[in-house]
Amino acid sequence: MEDCIFCKIIKGEIPSFKVYEDDYVFAFEDISPISEGHTLVIPKKHAQNLWEITDEDLTAVHLASKKIINAINNVLNPIGVACLQLNGRGVNQVVMHYHLHLIPRLKGGPELPVSSWELKQGDMEAIKQTAEKIAAAIK
Asked: What ranges do the domains of the chain cover?
């Protein structure tokens, strides 16, 4: 896509701090990191979100993310890594090109805002009904 910032990064039209590249995937450091080592893993073929990405590209992104998360672990020795992927502006997807965030939490660092929330048990009957509707809609 011509006006997509991530497509421009892949083409080398916009600079990035590349950490990994193969035939299907490009990965680089986020320039607005939540923590040190915050890395974005993207497919080279443009797809806006999980609804659009091909199975082949989705598989490639996640296989690459495993290699990258191992490297993050070796270099930064985090106490954990959040893997975050947003779909649509309603959940604050800013760049409309599928991307997986790998966000390390380093020892002594603050909690990651994407991985800390209050756990409250929901309405079991409502959860059951929603699960049944979703299960029935799977093709």
From this structure: 5-137
Q: Is 97 among the catalytic positions?
A: no
Predicted local distance difference test score (pLDDT) of residue 139: 87
3-state secondary structure of 103: strand
- Global confidence as pTM: 0.92
* Number of C-beta neighbours around residue 34 at 10 A: 18
Beta carbons of 4 and 15 less than 8 angstroms apart: no
| DSSP state at residue 139 | -
Distance CA 45, CA 2 (A): 12
The CATH number of 5-137 is which of 3.30.428.10, 3.40.50.20, 3.10.20.30, 3.40.50.720?
A: 3.30.428.10
Each residue's pLDDT tens digit, 10-48: 999 999 999 999 999 999 999 999 999 999 999 999 999
CB 81 within 8 A of CB 69: yes
Q: Which of 46, 97, 99, 101 is catalytic?
A: 99
